[in-house]
Amino acid sequence: ARAWHLTARPQGWPTPSDFALREQPVEAPTSGRILVRNLLMSVDPYMRGRMDDVKSYVPPFQLDEPMDGGAVGEVVASEAEGFAPGDHVLHGLGWREYATLDARHATKVSADAAPLSAYLGVLGMTGLTAYAGLFEVASFQEGDAVFVSGAAGAVGSQVGQMARLKGASRVIGSAGSAEKVRLLTEEYGFDAAFNYKDGPVAEQLREAAPDGIDVYFDNVGGEHLEAAIRSFNVHGRATICGMISQYNAEKPSPAPRNLALLIGKRLRLQGMLVQDHRHLQPRFVEEVSAWVRSGELKYDETVVEGIDNAVDAFLGMLKGENTGKMIVRVGD
Ligand code: NDP
């Protein structure tokens, strides 16, 4: 079976030559373990950080070893109690066709309750990130004006809609194409949206939010964060969720250059990691699946076919080729 390996540490933008799809033996499960045939795998921005050899909150990928990440698959052999062939599981050994793992690291998921891809997105890690980041980290309150960057992506699209559903006074989003901007206002119910490539973010944000913002959900960093600081009302709160504009930058961005505004506006900028918010999981699943069933919360997915195209899917996601969650279909 095949698995993607990292073969070189990228400098700046990764290129296909930093990766190789290699054969490796399929391991039969021993006691307590399961063999899973992967059906879907996730490509996520945080994986870029794991390609660098630096200490971080997740260990770096090892060179010439299979990469890993979120995946959903079908159990094909089990030596673990409670897991049988045919069960579907969410687990952490993506980037490969077959995975053998300790069943304690797998969560059973139901294909009847939701499409399996949803467990990697709207009902999975990125959905929980949106939910926790907005309601817990940013202390969102009804009546807040909310700005979210990366707003047509997996996390951002959910943040904006959740804010709307919970009574935001105004929801503003930024994204990287006219088509995405249209999606935000026409499908997701944002009050205003702009293409950050059309002109300075600070000016576009000020036009979209003439009365200022109370919450900024940051997926991008740099110029976007600087613009949000400028547009913040007193006691504004930012969830620093991601800084994708910096992940491939060889030199750090000088922005934000206006941090002195934090003082007079009494702003709070808080970083987050989704894994700190697992206690919200039951409430999140209950509330969000009800919104999805009723059609109040929409979600998109961009599905790339075939494990051969997984690296292209990852690179495409970094460049904005996805709308909603970027997913790779590994098998049927
Ligand atoms: P997305 O689905 O949003 O995909 C990434 C998107 O980023 C692209 O589609 C692209 O959209 C946008 N983008 C790329 N480069 C730039 C740039 N220079 N400026 C502005 N936008 C850019 O990914 P996710 O929803 O999975 O993740 C969104 C953010 O959340 C990331 O920063 C990620 O690291 C972070 N994250 C953090 C977590 C945590 O626990 N802290 C957990 C999960 C995600 P466009 O066409 O609009 O440019």
Entry summary:
The protein is an alpha/beta fold. The protein is built from 9 helices and 15 strands.
Mean pLDDT comes to 98
Identify every distinct bound molecule in the structure, by name, code or SMILES.
NADPH dihydro-nicotinamide-adenine-dinucleotide phosphate
Fraction of residues in H or I helices: 25-40%
The span between the termini is 15 Å
Number of continuous helical runs: 9
The name of the CATH architecture of the largest domain is 3-Layer(aba) Sandwich
Largest sheet: 7 strands, mixed
Question: What is the 3D form?
Answer: globular
SSE ordering:
EEEHEEEEHEHEHEHEHEHEHEHE
Number of strands: 15
- CATH topology type of the largest domain: Rossmann fold
Radius of gyration: 20 Å
Given helix and strand content, the structural type is: alpha/beta
CATH level-four homologous superfamily name of the largest domain: NAD(P)-binding Rossmann-like Domain
Task: Just give the CATH class of the largest domain.
Answer: Alpha Beta
Domain Enoyl reductase (ER): 14-328
Protein name: NADP-dependent oxidoreductase
GO molecular function: oxidoreductase activity, acting on the CH-CH group of donors, NAD or NADP as acceptor
Keywords: Oxidoreductase
